[in-house]
Design goal:
219 residues, alpha+beta, Arc Repressor Mutant, subunit A, SH3 type barrels, 3 domains, six-stranded antiparallel β-sheet, 9 strands, binds zinc ion
């Protein structure tokens, strides 16, 4: 049985909330890979503490107290990721797990100092926005999944989902990183995989891969 902290739940609710600030309990279970029963228990606890609004069978919503807390956890996590990537030199597939342990340690003052030392980065090594000290979240405009591009369209990578380290390792092996240009040569109708060109080399990307890479379309 995995031991998932309260902080992890709050961060996950924050990251997966829709435009109305709602998230379904079963999505949280799926993301954290725990049972629905475990999620229900934790949600009741978080509700008692005033961190979330929650009724069984309905969406979960962070209260302003819960949101502030979650945002700060996400901030700490992403600043650690930038530090580990830029200063320590860890590849982007290693920073998430390390940052996951480190986000719970160090005072807010230390995190603020690290942010300053890193020259106030707005995005982490996967392109996810870093909330500022005041809770302002940098906006990422024109963010489209690669799977939505049509034949002959080009995009520049601005974010990748960090849900799986092997996914990150694989896409780096074929040359995909932030700011890299990708051209869609062909969309294969039978399985919706796409043939892309990166640095003059062609590769076939599965639908799942293309759905987890986000680009800004080049005009
Ligand atoms: Zn990240």
């Amino acid at each position: 049985m995995k031991n998932i902290s309260k902080e992890d739940y709050l961060s996950e609710i924050y990251k997966n909330s829709d435009e109305n600030g709602q998230v379904k309990a079963n999505l949280i279970a799926e993301k954290l890979q725990v049972s629905n029963a475990a999620v229900t228990d934790m949600l009741k606890k978080l509700k008692r503490e005033g961190q979330i609004k929650y009724e069984p069978y309905r969406g979960v919503e962070l209260t302003s107290k819960g949101k502030e807390y979650a945002k700060n956890m996400v901030r700490r996590h992403r600043i650690w990721e930038v530090f580990l990537h830029q200063i320590v030199g860890l590849p982007w597939d290693k920073v998430h797990d390390e940052a996951h342990h480190l986000e719970h340690s160090g005072s807010d003052e230390l995190i603020n100092k690290m942010e300053e030392m890193l020259n106030f980065p707005q995005f982490d090594p996967h392109g996810d926005p870093i909330p500022s000290k005041l809770g302002i979240v940098p906006e990422q405009k024109h963010n489209v999944a690669l799977s939505n591009l049509k034949q002959n369209q080009k995009g520049v990578v601005i974010r990748v989902n960090d849900f799986d380290n092997n996914f990150l390792i694989y896409i780096s092996q074929i040359g995909i990183k932030l700011k890299k240009e990708i051209k869609v040569c062909e969309v294969l109708n039978f399985d919706k995989s796409i043939l892309v060109e990166i640095d003059g080399k062609k590769n076939n990307l599965s639908r799942t891969i293309a759905e987890n890479i986000f680009v800004e379309i080049k005009k």
